[in-house]
# Entry
Amino acid sequence: MEPKRLYALLRPGNPGIAAQAWRAVHHALVALGIAIMLALTVEDWHATYGEPLSDVFDVIAGFFVLEYVLRLLAAPGAPGAEHRGIWRSRLSWALSFGGIYDLAAAVPGFIAIPDSRAATLIGFIWVFKYVRYSSGLSMLERVITHARQALLSVLLGLVIVLLAAASLAYLLEHHVPQPDGSYAFRSIPAALWWAIVTLTTTGYGDVIPQTVGGRMVAGLVMVCGIMVFALLAGILATGYAEEMRRREFLRTWELVAKVPFFHNLGATLIAEVARLLRARDYPPNAAIVRRGEPGDCMFFVADGEVEIELRPQRLRLGAGSFFGELALLTGAPRNATVTATRTCTLLTLDIVDFFELLGRQPELARVIHEEASRRLGPGTPVHAALKAMIAHDREPAA
Amino acid sequence: MEPKRLYALLRPGNPGIAAQAWRAVHHALVALGIAIMLALTVEDWHATYGEPLSDVFDVIAGFFVLEYVLRLLAAPGAPGAEHRGIWRSRLSWALSFGGIYDLAAAVPGFIAIPDSRAATLIGFIWVFKYVRYSSGLSMLERVITHARQALLSVLLGLVIVLLAAASLAYLLEHHVPQPDGSYAFRSIPAALWWAIVTLTTTGYGDVIPQTVGGRMVAGLVMVCGIMVFALLAGILATGYAEEMRRREFLRTWELVAKVPFFHNLGATLIAEVARLLRARDYPPNAAIVRRGEPGDCMFFVADGEVEIELRPQRLRLGAGSFFGELALLTGAPRNATVTATRTCTLLTLDIVDFFELLGRQPELARVIHEEASRRLGPGTPVHAALKAMIAHDREPAA
Amino acid sequence: MEPKRLYALLRPGNPGIAAQAWRAVHHALVALGIAIMLALTVEDWHATYGEPLSDVFDVIAGFFVLEYVLRLLAAPGAPGAEHRGIWRSRLSWALSFGGIYDLAAAVPGFIAIPDSRAATLIGFIWVFKYVRYSSGLSMLERVITHARQALLSVLLGLVIVLLAAASLAYLLEHHVPQPDGSYAFRSIPAALWWAIVTLTTTGYGDVIPQTVGGRMVAGLVMVCGIMVFALLAGILATGYAEEMRRREFLRTWELVAKVPFFHNLGATLIAEVARLLRARDYPPNAAIVRRGEPGDCMFFVADGEVEIELRPQRLRLGAGSFFGELALLTGAPRNATVTATRTCTLLTLDIVDFFELLGRQPELARVIHEEASRRLGPGTPVHAALKAMIAHDREPAA
Amino acid sequence: MEPKRLYALLRPGNPGIAAQAWRAVHHALVALGIAIMLALTVEDWHATYGEPLSDVFDVIAGFFVLEYVLRLLAAPGAPGAEHRGIWRSRLSWALSFGGIYDLAAAVPGFIAIPDSRAATLIGFIWVFKYVRYSSGLSMLERVITHARQALLSVLLGLVIVLLAAASLAYLLEHHVPQPDGSYAFRSIPAALWWAIVTLTTTGYGDVIPQTVGGRMVAGLVMVCGIMVFALLAGILATGYAEEMRRREFLRTWELVAKVPFFHNLGATLIAEVARLLRARDYPPNAAIVRRGEPGDCMFFVADGEVEIELRPQRLRLGAGSFFGELALLTGAPRNATVTATRTCTLLTLDIVDFFELLGRQPELARVIHEEASRRLGPGTPVHAALKAMIAHDREPAA
# Structure
């Protein structure tokens, strides 16, 4: 198979059947490999089923060697790798983070042949194999990266509280034995164990302050712990909301970019159009557009589903579709009734906002007018306002 | 009783007295049934009061059989079920999620007759009976469904941390005995128990790392635990805020749809009007509108209560009401003073915004004008601006 | 003292010295009373210092009797109580929530005379005395009240998880002894104790599942616990943000209402003006306004402090003040330079936005014009645009 | 070295190599000092390595004495200290919070000479040395300060719950022994220890209610605990989001203030311009601007990176840069194509918004026009609209 097709086969989001089958086998083998790794550490099972389990483990490890080779072969098929030579792109992949990880994941198979237990243990890194296929994790990573500074500050605060708590508890408790006679606060490093267990509100209960002063410090540390928790939650909530807003905009941008007569616009102009979209929620069964009404906006389905009553059949559109786009070009009345089949969110592009934008963006107006002429044919009337705008635009802008 | 009335009787939100009585009996029996189920598992009580409690349990189980039959009979009365035959709509309900659950809830009564304890235990599924009546749970369900992808990513991260922590702790601690001499980290599955108890900061204290390295891993796991917490809180906070905003809009939409002269508008036009509403908060006793002032907007009560001083009596309006709507049609001065009785939130529809919208939506202007003429009668003057707008609208839109 | 002055003395926010002294004594006695109540339950201290502590306790209880009498006397001085008779307003206060609570707080003094320990214990209700003086608690109460429905749904979910977890754990563990030989899962009510301790991630460690199945259920319950936490955090964060926004608006409203020439406006017009305010943050030492610049907006200090360089002295304005208001009336150049002394947030009312509002609100324009004429005297020129607007306003509105 | 240069060297954010080297040494010594302090409290290590560790400890303490002296010498070099005399500015720094802290941090060196263990312990205050260098902590401090009132209310609520829980648990449990025979609820202060451990969901497990009533109270306290958590998270999330928004604005403000032809504007005018900026996200490789397109806005890079294709080389601009600014002055077509190299956020200043602002702010228009004439030279045409505006501005404003 040539690199391009192989690369496509291995690409996480590929909806093809072969790619799905690959993913199913891959995910199942990762799960199985980890399960065997877990099982082999249980003394009884190791004694009874050790041999066959080790064999299966080796087969799975072999599979990851195969995957490594396949990904190495596929490397020249990655987008942007055409300019480089075949071997240079393979080397560059092998040295990338993903390449090194895949190599590490292929290693247990080689070491495990003489059945060393430590090698088996390496199997737990296979769980990271799932990371590549999780689109949500990359989002969380972005959130954490952006809030890095604030998170580090909270961690610094946490370290300060830990040290202060451990020092104070050491001062107050280092001569006081625990109920079992041990001296759990005998040094600050030992007191730090108590402090982290208390600050995170884990509370194992193996070390408990015995003096009144020590218990007051403990109470303060616990309250600090829930404050730290709350601060982290606040920081991550804000970052996540911001990331969602950003993702939302990019999704809107892509929605707009999919409409045929916006295809040729630059990113800024598409962003300009996307900025005009307004989200509106509709209850189930609401009539969004009625046949014969004047067409004054176009719609993008952001969430939910709508039904278009085209005689004789009905058409259902889900998230990512758009309808009513002719309104922007011709201003003709609606030629079908559209109903929300369930609660849904539509983004609307109002013709008034759109023309206002055209008035300010002569470049956009020209592209749209060309598109309209081309699509509608000579017989159909272009929207009067659009025609006027283009005529006006031929004069130099003020 | 015919299916339609029976269906209405059983419908969760029905404010009628018969329906409320039904709900009271239903809720009480669910609570009683669960209480008996709990009590029967206590050895002493079972020995002493087993017989009478079992009898009451059977009666309650019988009630759920009755409820199942009633809901089966009522199925043809559901909205949208008219087209189908009586038996087909019953079968379709019986196979729905609610139908199967109600059947399962009716089962314990049949099994429990020979007093098998396991059957009694099934009674705990009765607690789900309350779900049908809780409007908030459906909202939480929507929030969780929408944040599904991010939540799953966090869970994947959680699994990764768990496996990594358990493997490391196993490596560091599997030869180190606990204080009581047991080997709690003897295998990775055993170490996983420690890891989940620590990561969720539950900290039972039955398994505690004894080496310095193990305690460092434990500290890291605890801090990861509060990060996971915080991430979940952030994700759900964002989703909940978004859901509240959506719900708020739908509520605004419904407020507008209730005003008589907006009745005949389509969903989009109502959404257009709803979008113009602006929330304003008023302190207690603030005069919102004064008799004789020019009428420049209409008001919807979103929260709180206002008092209208109509001579001779006073009228109080709560959430969901509206007032000042004549201002949109006639522009006549206010004929009453309106005061906020406590801190309240009103949504205002400004006449200027409204007319701007009418100018852009000829369809809406026509409907409103017709409504105005019909409601005000020939003698009363329609608002000058409204009249002008309609006249203008007869010419083709630019 | 007459009721009005007495009422003012007792009012929580009163900044007068007498009122502050009263509060200091009150707060100190509440704290002391609770401290004594705590101390009297310690066997040793009760034996040693019981007598003198009890005496002080009685004195404090006596103080609350005095407070009750004072508040009863002050009741007719409350705003809005003038219409009712003296005794009716006292009775109405005595039957209000605050009155009944204050009576309950006065009781321990009477019961405690024979030194009954239970009576002493009632002292803990004194801690609620602080509630009346905490303005933040009323805000939290509003947040919780508004999110009531969602919170109840989460609690219902919590109950469902508890019952399901307890039932499952009972099934799996009721024949398995704990390490100390007891049967902690011997009944569902007993299993519920384990379930709540685990679900809230408290984890005392007195009851721990011993089977693999039971530990899997426990892991699930812990993860559910952090989800419940996160949901609650999300709900309360959203509610709190909403409440802050509301409070912010009311604060803005009050800022505007304090400006002399907005005094006579109704609540709606003030809200209309408040809506025009835009928050702007300034870094420390930034020149906000320079002497001689055209005056194009007025400023309200929302947070921080500014310094006005009036020759010869300098004037500092803190949160709640405003400056530059003459710009709205005369349009004259600034007569002083204003600098931010530290990072501060100002709300600005732009003259252009303000005149746009005046154009739409003839009532407001008239009031402002009258105010301008009155304040500026015949010699000073009124802002040209303002004059024109009033002239225009004399004609009927379109 | 003169105070000014010394001050710059010690300033946290200084990017110079000497300053970075200073910071590296400083941070390393703080970490080492704390590590030694921790190690000296461990009996074994103290016995074996006590002497050399103490010596290093003394050296580090000596370093902090040096730092104190340096900061004292540098004090007259602080901005704003020029007016005061050298000794007055030193005294003022010595009495400031930072000065007193640095003195305290210098103390252990003097006390520790006779090797007193308590003196060594003081070393833990060195951890606060990091605070000065953490920009995020000051932000968190602002968040907590702003939410002070709400946080205190939650703490008051927490105290109320603690007292109520301890009193109730004392009533129900004070005669019931724990499994080990002790009476853990023997007094309310003792019960308070249980209450705080339970309310914060720490759950050491040393004190556990034994009666059914006590366990019900415990369950309630745990649920209250997660509510308190959730409230704190909500409050801090709201405060943090607000603080981020504020910081964002100040950053935007600084972005604008860096553009040459906005240099001479006052803070209000820059804020006015900053308010016009609109954030837009671009996907990787999107063409932001194409050579030859009409220039209709200028861009600020808020996040990410763009590439400008200037023949013959390419130029990359990161966060904080701007481009396309000539569009505001001349309206000439773009002279280069600009592409996003990765997902990035740009702030755009639209020429239409900008001219609208100029129309309202004659002062700004004048400054910009002067700047344009100066920068562009006599040959280049100034933007027609800008020229017109200035001409118009010479007449008195309406």
The beta strands of chain D are 278-282, 287-289, 297-303, 306-309, 314-317, 322-323, 337-340, 344-350.
